[in-house]
Design goal:
With 429 residues, the protein is α/β, with parallel strands linked by helices. Helix content is 41%, strand content 19%. A 6-stranded parallel sheet has the order 8-17-16-13-15-14, with helices on both faces.
Length: 429
């Protein structure tokens, strides 16, 4: 979440003369940038941040109610996970937790692509909170799944979009029947693309950050590495026989399809050895880059938690401060690690892509390493965008660690390109 989106949101708040605003966002975006940017661009609005504990939530809601009852302009900033908790604290499927605040003038959904799953609890909770208007903000308008665009559009115009299949999928998307007779979406109906784009254009404005913000162009380096012989042996056995013996003696099994693909991806990132740690040519190259970067701060991303933990282990052995952000840590622990990194307490921050690919502002770093990539281009763009963003003073370096001829190229990159082309086909540009 950068200056462009928060500034645009503040302009909407001012233009609509909105006094009571609800902002739903990832937890690590509540203070920076939302509270900070509201104080800067909308100083007449009092900010109330919903905390993580029940006591903090109750105190914040009570403060918001006092302010709103007194007619004082108020912005309530709430992380997504707390939306259904507040909603159901007096009973399931009610809005009693939010009801005392009445109707908001404006609901803002930050990183709105997270609303793509209409069955998610926080999506349903946000939908039920009453507001006059709604504003969705996202640097990831579509991540290769055009059917997920339905949910935000239904929130905008619920009477127009009642049924996802009748009012959206059947109108704009092509399907095939799988072996079980179930519909599987394969992409947009090409003959209806103009109509689809017109429909999107009623509520959607797409702007590229580099078109209106000063963001230094990063220096992208393809770090092509060969697997260690033992890694290559494990990879071949897994690919050919769906099982392999790892260097630490563990026997690893995988069935064909997605489990095999996942297993092969983990092998390219490293295989466990006796005594702990991973045998990994990618990590060898990454440590060379970390140690040669001088005092520059570095964010290292990986897909698997094990690869992230290996970065931290090697950094500790080399006497380099390294924070870790992954699904193994609580939200409070993640925010603490991010804060320490931003204050210079760590020189390296190692994170899983899904955990840190949105909301955090890490312009203090000047190097991004992608030990593994997502096959969704949005994930990778968002991850790199933590560092390469407004406020970055240098031309950051981005290192992409890949094993040529492996699953990195044959599957991850292939899916990445397919999804990028699909997004370009629908949205243009």
């Amino acid at each position: 979440m950068g200056l462009g989106k928060t500034l645009g949101a503040c302009m909407v708040i001012d233009g609509w003369d909105a006094n009571f605003i609800l902002i739903a966002c990832p937890s690590n975006a509540k203070q920076d940038p939302w509270a900070q940017h509201l104080a800067k661009f909308c100083p007449w609005i009092g900010v109330v941040i919903i905390g993580n504990t029940r006591a903090e939530r109750d105190a914040a809601l009570a403060e918001a109610r006092r302010r709103m009852d007194a007619g004082k302009p108020t912005a309530v900033i709430c992380h997504y996970a707390a939306l259904p908790i507040i909603e159901t604290r007096h009973g399931p499927k009610t809005v009693s937790g939010w009801k005392p605040l009445g109707q908001f003038d404006l609901k803002i959904a930050d990183e709105a692509h997270m609303l793509g799953n209409r069955k998610a609890q926080f999506t349903s909770a946000l939908r039920r909170i009453p507001a006059v208007g709604m504003l969705d903000l996202s640097g990831s308008v579509m991540s290769g799944a055009p059917e997920k665009l339905f949910v935000p559009w239904q929130m905008f115009q619920p009477k127009r979009y009642r049924s996802q299949w009748r009012d959206w999928n059947d109108r704009f998307l092509d399907v095939v029947l799988d072996d079980y007779g179930q519909k599987q979406i394969v992409g947009p109906k090409l003959h209806r693309l103009p109509e689809f784009r017109a429909e999107l254009g009623e509520c959607l404005v797409v702007r590229k950050a580099r078109d209106y913000l000063e963001i230094p162009e990063p220096h992208v380096v393809d770090r092509l590495v060969e697997m260690h012989p033992e890694q290559a042996r494990v990879y071949r056995e897994m690919a050919d026989d769906l099982m392999s013996e790892l260097p630490d003696g563990t026997i690893n099994y995988a069935t064909d399809g997605a489990p095999l693909r996942s297993a092969l991806r983990q092998v390219t990132a490293g295989v466990p050895v006796e005594g702990g740690g991973l045998l990994s040519s990618k990590h060898d190259a990454a440590m060379e880059d970390i140690q040669s970067a001088g005092d520059s701060q570095i964010v290292m991303f990986a897909w698997h938690r094990r690869a992230v933990e290996e970065v931290a282990r090697r950094c500790r052995e080399a006497g380099i401060g390294c924070g870790v952000v992954s699904g193994a840590y609580s939200q409070a622990e993640r925010e603490r690690e991010i804060g320490l990194f931003k204050r210079g307490g760590y020189r390296v921050l190692a994170a899983t892509i899904k955990t840190l690919s949105s909301a955090a502002n890490l312009q203090n770093a000047s190097v991004v390493g992608m030990l593994e990539e997502s096959d969704d281009p949005i994930d990778n763009e968002q991850a790199i965008g933590r560092v390469v963003r407004q406020g970055q003073r240098a031309n950051a370096s981005v290192y992409l660690y890949r094993v040529p001829g492996s699953v990195d190229d044959l599957s991850v990159q292939a899916n990445y390109l397919t999804k990028a082309e699909l997004r370009s086909l629908i949205l243009g540009g």
